[in-house]
Amino acid sequence: MLNADPISDTVTRVRDLTALRAAVRAFRAKGLSVGFVPTMGALHAGHLALVQHAKSLCDVVVVSIFVNPKQFAPHEDFGRYPRQEDADAALLATVGCDLVYLPEADLMYPSVFASLVHVEGPARPLEGEFRPQFFDGVATVVMKLFNQVQPDVAVFGEKDYQQLQVVKTFVRDLDLPVKVVGLPTVREADGLALSSRNAYLSAEERQTAARLIVELNAVAETVRNGGDRDVALQTATDNLLTAGFGPVDYVTLRDADTLSEPGPDTRALRLLAAAWLGKTRLIDNIAV
Ligand code: AMP
């Protein structure tokens, strides 16, 4: 019998590896394919779209909720990151999630823990520069979660575009037997990308936040029309600062696969931005 607490909202929650493995073994014994969506909780419609897509690709879907301490620097928002387990479980029940995995922090990182998954290439620039520990923390926890859940398919959001490329890279480099699928960003009516961190915004900041995607769309339009890229990027940065953002960490056009500066081998472009609005750091990106 599983060491799990079945709840009235019908999504079973498991908290330890033995229970997780027993549940996944039971799925496998029935010949079911397993989809996986890793999250940090405080779920919104963007997360739910990933679950629904995973469900369309696989027989069952496992969602993890784990606020991963290894991907936060000491000055970042680990302590105040929103945690709402019951509300999350209720939302997951509405989209057919089969199992929620909520590992305890000491299960993921016991006191004797000496390993780190380090990715170069697409992990180096942008977020890698502004948040130096971030992708090692992400890659390490995603590697652990993949080994724990052993899914056939894992679904990630393009909202965190660089993260998606980093995960695809180490899955390919290290021959992990999982298919990584990316899904377009789910947005509010005014274009703001849904994010758990939007909850930090004041009412006024929330109004201003939509400006980020407006500026990205304007740059993309200029680039598509053959306009001056550097001028367009600088104008977007200036407009964000004028609107109340600051600092603007980057607004940049990159090779969509490598995240490096576009070059002769670039097949597709991605426009990415990160900017502070008050105490909240927002990121967004679009295809060009
Ligand atoms: P998080 O809980 O922020 O770590 O995100 C968990 C997963 O949800 C990641 O794959 C994110 O890229 C994805 N995600 C977050 N926000 C959105 C969004 N607005 N649209 C689509 N996917 C998203």
Note the total helix count: 10
Question: Looking across the biggest beta sheet, what order are the strands in?
Answer: 1-2-5-4-3-6-7
Radius of gyration: 19 Å
What's the name of the CATH homologous superfamily of the largest domain?
Answer: HUPs
Structural class: alpha/beta
Q: Give the biggest beta sheet.
A: 7 strands, mixed
CATH structural class of the largest domain: Alpha Beta
Question: What is the CATH topology classification name of the largest domain?
Answer: Rossmann fold
Please estimate the helix content: 25-40%
Query: What ligands are attached or bound here?
Result: adenosine monophosphate
Number of strands: 10
The protein's oligomeric status is single chain
Principal-axis shape equals globular
Mean pLDDT, nearest integer? 96
CATH architectural grouping of the largest domain: 3-Layer(aba) Sandwich
Low-confidence stretches are none
Structural domain tally: 2
Q: How far from one another are the termini? A: 51 Å
What is the element string, with H for helices and E for strands?
EEHEHEHEHHHEHEHHHEEE
Residue share in β-strands: 15-25%
